[in-house]
Write a sequence for this structure.
């Protein structure tokens, strides 16, 4: 692998040897090898205390599971430094709106407001599909020697045997601070190809993490089914799969929704979600907050304040109505 020409303008730290990387990360060389774990000793060990991650298994509505891989404190600090001093300096494709400063789900949805048809597609197993070898290759294209790139890739990836083939091999862990940025960087070629495909069909394209959105007018509406097949082929060529059960073609006349927001005439919160939150807040005022904390949130007040703040950011008028109710709650 050779560094891409654009890497010369990225102002990345110069790290030419494994020893220099250990010094940059304030580690002894043996510590660096342990945290990078290129031989997979940590996840092959039967002693969990020697591992670098805490694990939490969450169920999905489809019956599948999602594994949250949270790095332990020292590894997390190493990843945060790599994120702030290397990954955050890499430019992303303009279509990317997730995990990017100055972008949000609102900017992700806005280009599709008022369009005749919206196509929503979802990538299956987004983080686990990005392999450790792919991450090491990314660091090499940044200009780092193979030995340094492999160690950086090892620090940013993990393997979890026992939860399927994808998780058993080194992959981007969902829960590491470096994973969202690396996923966006690895998806640059995909974003280029999909943006070009969308332009050729007279459509708009945006991506928020593993959610893809396309929209357009009458011409795009006529070819949208065939277009979705082309998207799936491109994703397959790039090493990803489409979760076809989540593919949606939403024409005018039905609720067009993306990332939990409505996009028919303006970006707005979904009415049913607003009504549920309003009911919860009202019951907190009438019956006490504890009666509504059915999921056992340890910081229920902060949780509700965040939900109200989200509505305020999307629809200030509706948010103000919720805020007035929230301020009437008697917190013990």
């Amino acid at each position: 692998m050779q560094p891409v020409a654009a890497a010369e303008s990225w102002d990345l730290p110069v790290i030419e040897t494994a020893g220099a990387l250990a010094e940059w990360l304030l580690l002894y060389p043996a510590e660096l090898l342990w945290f990078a774990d290129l031989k997979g000793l940590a996840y092959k060990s039967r002693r969990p205390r020697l591992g670098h991650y805490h694990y939490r298994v969450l169920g999905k509505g489809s019956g599948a599971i999602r594994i949250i891989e949270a790095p332990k404190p020292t590894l997390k600090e190493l990843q945060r430094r790599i994120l702030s001093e290397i990954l955050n300096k890499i430019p992303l494709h303009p279509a990317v709106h997730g995990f990017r400063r100055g972008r949000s789900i609102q900017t992700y949805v806005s280009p599709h407001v008022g369009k005749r048809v919206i196509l929503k597609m979802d990538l299956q197993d987004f983080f686990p599909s990005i392999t450790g070898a792919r991450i090491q290759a990314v660091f090499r294209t940044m200009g780092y020697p193979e030995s340094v790139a492999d160690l950086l890739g090892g620090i940013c990836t993990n393997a979890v045997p026992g939860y399927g083939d994808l998780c058993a091999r080194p992959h981007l862990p969902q829960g590491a601070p470096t994973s969202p940025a690396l996923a966006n960087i690895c998806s640059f070629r995909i974003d280029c190809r999909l943006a070009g495909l969308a332009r050729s069909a007279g459509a708009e394209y945006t991506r928020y993490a593993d959610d893809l959105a396309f929209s357009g007018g009458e011409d795009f509406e006529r070819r949208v089914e065939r277009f979705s097949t082309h998207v799936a082929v491109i994703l397959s060529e790039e090493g990803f799969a489409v979760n076809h059960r989540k593919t949606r073609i939403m024409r005018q006349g039905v609720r067009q929704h993306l990332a939990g927001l409505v996009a028919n005439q303006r970006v707005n919160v979904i009415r049913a979600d607003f009504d549920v939150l309003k009911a919860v807040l009202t019951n907190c005022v009438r019956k006490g907050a504890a009666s509504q904390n059915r999921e056992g949130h340890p910081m229920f007040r902060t949780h509700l304040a965040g939900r109200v703040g989200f509505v305020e950011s999307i629809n200030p008028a509706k948010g103000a109505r919720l805020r007035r109710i929230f301020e009437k709650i008697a917190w013990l």
Observations:
- The beta strands are 53-59, 65-71, 117-124, 203-208, 211-216, 241-242, 248-251, 257-258, 261-262, 268-269.
- The two ends are 60 Å apart (CA to CA).
